[in-house]
Amino acid sequence: MVEAEDGRTITEGWRALEFFTDRVDARRRFCSYLNDDPPPSSVLVFHGDGGNGESLLLQHLRAHLCKRIAPDNWAYLKGLSDEDCIAQMAKAANAYWSAWSTVRIQFARKDENTLPAHWPIFLTRSSPISNATRAAATPINALLNYLYAIL
Fold first, then answer.
1. pLDDT digits (tens), the chain, 151 positions
2. Going by C-beta distance under 8 Å and a sequence separation of 6 or more, which residues neighbour residue 30?
3. Contacts (Cβ under 8 Å, ≥6 apart) of 99
4. What are phi and psi of 47, to 5 degrees?
5. Residue in 99, 100, 78, 103 with CA at minimum distance from that of residue 89
6. Residues forming a β-bridge with 121
7. What is the pLDDT of residue 14?
8. Helices (H), strands (E): how many in the chain?
9. DSSP H helices in the chain
10. What residues form DSSP beta bridges with 3?
11. Comparing C-alpha atoms, which of 48, 37, 66 is closest to residue 149?
């Protein structure tokens, strides 16, 4: 078991997503399924023996690569090597979520003093309740969950 400097393991909960590596071919195939036009006519399935990381892979795909790319951008990414394509997708995801850090929700002035201080700002996409993107703990994440659900 690998431990971080603070003594916690790097493979538990949300920390495993932070240090997720490998499975480049599976990540690239997932991106292709989302962005190829026309889309593949088959279903993408990840399977294997328990404990080999399929669930973590799915969490990683949802958190970092579950994005449709504009066709001209996808044409560029598709021409890159698997490693470069995934690296560029990760950079795009980081830029996207970083942009949310400047968004501030305006609440009615009469309510400002009664709300938790973290509610008007975007801190992280993960919820402290579930260590995932579900079970939103802030209004911004609740709105994002709703909007992604109706897309």
1. 444 555 555 455 545 545 455 678 888 888 899 899 888 888 888 777 777 677 778 877 877 777 788 899 999 999 999 889 988 887 887 788 788 777 888 888 898 889 888 788 877 777 777 776 677 878 888 888 888 778 6
2. 44, 61, 65
3. none
4. -145, 165
5. 78
6. 104
7. 47
8. 6, 0
9. 14-18, 24-35, 54-60, 71-78, 82-100, 139-150
10. 9
11. 66
Q: Which two tokens stand for residue 71?
A: 């066709």
d(CA 97, CA 122): 9
Burial class (CB in 10 A: 0-12, 13-18, 19+), 141: buried
Q: Which residue has the tokens 């509610």?
A: 119
Q: Are 20 and 86 in contact (CB under 8 A)?
A: no
> Hey, what are 123's tokens?
């801190």
The position carrying tokens 């609440």 is: 107
CA distance 45 to 42: 9
